[in-house]
From TrEMBL, chains A, B:
<comment type="subunit">
    <text>Homodimer.</text>
</comment>
<keyword id="KW-0436">Ligase</keyword>
<dbReference type="InterPro" id="IPR004522">
    <property type="entry name" value="Asn-tRNA-ligase"/>
</dbReference>
<keyword id="KW-0067">ATP-binding</keyword>
<dbReference type="GO" id="GO:0004816">
    <property type="term" value="F:asparagine-tRNA ligase activity"/>
</dbReference>
<dbReference type="Pfam" id="PF00152">
    <property type="entry name" value="tRNA-synt_2"/>
</dbReference>
<comment type="similarity">
    <text>Belongs to the class-II aminoacyl-tRNA synthetase family.</text>
</comment>
<dbReference type="GO" id="GO:0006421">
    <property type="term" value="P:asparaginyl-tRNA aminoacylation"/>
</dbReference>
<dbReference type="InterPro" id="IPR004365">
    <property type="entry name" value="NA-bd_OB_tRNA"/>
</dbReference>
<dbReference type="InterPro" id="IPR012340">
    <property type="entry name" value="NA-bd_OB-fold"/>
</dbReference>
<keyword id="KW-0547">Nucleotide-binding</keyword>
<dbReference type="GO" id="GO:0003676">
    <property type="term" value="F:nucleic acid binding"/>
</dbReference>
<keyword id="KW-0963">Cytoplasm</keyword>
<dbReference type="GO" id="GO:0005737">
    <property type="term" value="C:cytoplasm"/>
</dbReference>
<dbReference type="InterPro" id="IPR006195">
    <property type="entry name" value="aa-tRNA-synth_II"/>
</dbReference>
<dbReference type="InterPro" id="IPR002312">
    <property type="entry name" value="Asp/Asn-tRNA-synth_IIb"/>
</dbReference>
<dbReference type="Pfam" id="PF01336">
    <property type="entry name" value="tRNA_anti-codon"/>
</dbReference>
Amino acid sequence: MKIRIIDLLKTTTYNINVSVNGWVRTHRQSKNISFIAINDGSTVHNLQIVAEHEKIKKDFLKLVTTGSAIRVDGMFVLSTGNQQHGEIIAQNIVLYGTADPQEYPLQKKEHSLDFLRNIAHLRMRTNIFGAIFRVRHNLAFAIHKYFHEKGFFYFNTPIITTSDAEGAGKLFEVTTGDNQDFFGVPANLTVSGQLEGELGALGLGAIYTFGPTFRAENSNTYRHLAEFWMVEPEMAFIDINDNMDLAEDFLKYVIRYAIETCESDLIFLNNTVNSGLIERLHSVVNNKFVRLPYSQAIEILKQSNREFEIPILQGMDLNSEHERFLVEEYFCCPIIVTNYPKEIKAFYMKLNEDDKTVRAMDILFPQIGEIIGGSERESDYLKLRQRMEELGMNMKQLWWYLETRKFGTVPHAGFGLGFERLVLFVTGMSNIRDVIPFPRTPKNANF
Amino acid sequence: MKIRIIDLLKTTTYNINVSVNGWVRTHRQSKNISFIAINDGSTVHNLQIVAEHEKIKKDFLKLVTTGSAIRVDGMFVLSTGNQQHGEIIAQNIVLYGTADPQEYPLQKKEHSLDFLRNIAHLRMRTNIFGAIFRVRHNLAFAIHKYFHEKGFFYFNTPIITTSDAEGAGKLFEVTTGDNQDFFGVPANLTVSGQLEGELGALGLGAIYTFGPTFRAENSNTYRHLAEFWMVEPEMAFIDINDNMDLAEDFLKYVIRYAIETCESDLIFLNNTVNSGLIERLHSVVNNKFVRLPYSQAIEILKQSNREFEIPILQGMDLNSEHERFLVEEYFCCPIIVTNYPKEIKAFYMKLNEDDKTVRAMDILFPQIGEIIGGSERESDYLKLRQRMEELGMNMKQLWWYLETRKFGTVPHAGFGLGFERLVLFVTGMSNIRDVIPFPRTPKNANF
């Protein structure tokens, strides 16, 4: 019976014949026996193979080095050692592929994350990246599960677009070289699916996107990627308060899902990468997020007697140092900041009655800072037009967006989650290049 | 109580006060009563609102035209007509947004799909596109659910790449205009995540991608998109037969999921678009796919006495007319064609012992033709190198791909599903531009 290691280690049925595949992590020889630890990627736990040299020849076992791939047929038994665990007494070992110890880069010694980034094609074979990408998967699945169960429809907004949604940043252009004119107009890679997502919500009621977005910023930091994945739900017939409720419930749901389904990976990451990790995850899930108008946030920062690098002024955009002070020192829990001045927010956000602030909501997390940005959208055709005019925007280009306010407009709201930021938070990693399989950054599009 | 129409129509609890939102589909007035059908995108079924002019003024109701958006507060009751159904006796109606009958393009009359494609920002508000995109969502969710339950990890392969996976077609180039050199090397949009997906499978055991892919072909047909979504599972420790089992099980699972969860949308599509639809779906789910070596497929075609536009020759690539003959006339069920000549397949497919054919598998469906293409991958380092040399490929560019065969190589296999082809098949639509929200085709990247 062929079985994955994660499933085998769950059983308490011993003395059964099984067939297991994996890559060799370690191989330790004593006089008559070899102990081989293999891993098949299904779990952070290795499976121990006991190969008696009477059955499995020593000459053959010399080839079974770290990094090689084998199939083991044998009996799954309860080990007789102090710490009892399941292991396999090998009857037969098939060597699929060797890994020359002189050449294979992932030897037993520890490697820096920097080194592993340069061999991203092999780093999935390490405990740490196995854990990260299993957590990433489970977070992605939780996102689909959450929205599906809430009646949202997954909606694929275009990657190649001819409009810059929000002037959110520098764009990558898309051409065909010999024929610049494939689409008849200049085209670029999307920075956000929101505007098209609104079109979906204004017909289907509630949608979410989950796809790649792009920024051509020349930023070489541990927080920036040129290509990253965004989750953008959008819902008709809700206001900013419903939107805050949704975002808080959503974040807690997906983090709780990871806590429950990725226990051994999170324990591994907690023990090796970030010792406060699991406690921090529980704290976010178990505490109500503080909801704080922007003007109050500014007051708190002003009265903090803290010397910030960038001094506090009403009307300013909050900086990472300000966000972290509020979240990590003042409130000690996630915060939803609302009602920002319209000048520092996007054109599509709903204007409050004061004519000065908009119904924006940014969710700030410990360690991460802004993890979600959202708003109720301006649903009034004339107000939206006016704001676009004030900002000198091209209204002809967004005729379709404006029409949704002309025909059957409704209150609606949504938000955007940078998926890699969520994975950073839940894995406790600090460099965003380590939570996406093949990061794209300035001067780097390897693999 | 605020409730979605799909949930309300499921209840059998009548005489409760509810609040429902939606866009007006029709408004019919009799002497003292208005009957307003609204839809909120959650289901293909409209909800009937009964507005007595005593309570809701006639002057106000004049504004409640097709396309306008309203909230209705009232009592949910069982109608007294012949065909009993739940409806709402309105106590109060809030008009969110009007839709000027002179301007709103979606009046009651039927519109051509062609016309609706030009107003893709509004077409989600029609029954047909509501049905299509709800089915699309449920298929996407079923895909994630299937692979999650089978232990596959969702794996995001890069969209911007510097290598052309398989010479699969013309590439879109990615630049930053003022700085052609963002990545330090020429970059393009991916045509397939397979090669990077293999890297994932060769560490994590089993992965799947589900993301956008791109072809810059100047093809203006009802089957081609410049931007479309692909699903590409890849699994270590399996061979071509396991791969066929997986693909067949997978297709049946997701189609069965749609049959079970999208009943009313599929009935609508069956009745309005494609009358054989539901029968065809059941037939695919209930019959074993025929597995057929390529050489036998050629023999059958030769002996068919059919005059094909392109005559049959051993070694040729199968054409749509050939595929449809085999699937729709000869076998009358889906077919998996295997063991194609290596010359007409990609470099990474595993060579058979005959040195002539490769372990490819194409799944052919009625109406659609090829819906899945896959193979066992060449896991032998020397054979892979040799094939790449024969084809004059750039081995330096794919050093990382080759290294996976050098270090702990294992038998592995996978396949690719064009998601829009699946949506076409399950919705019974015939133009691929109608099953993706905002199609990208030559000269068209609107919205």
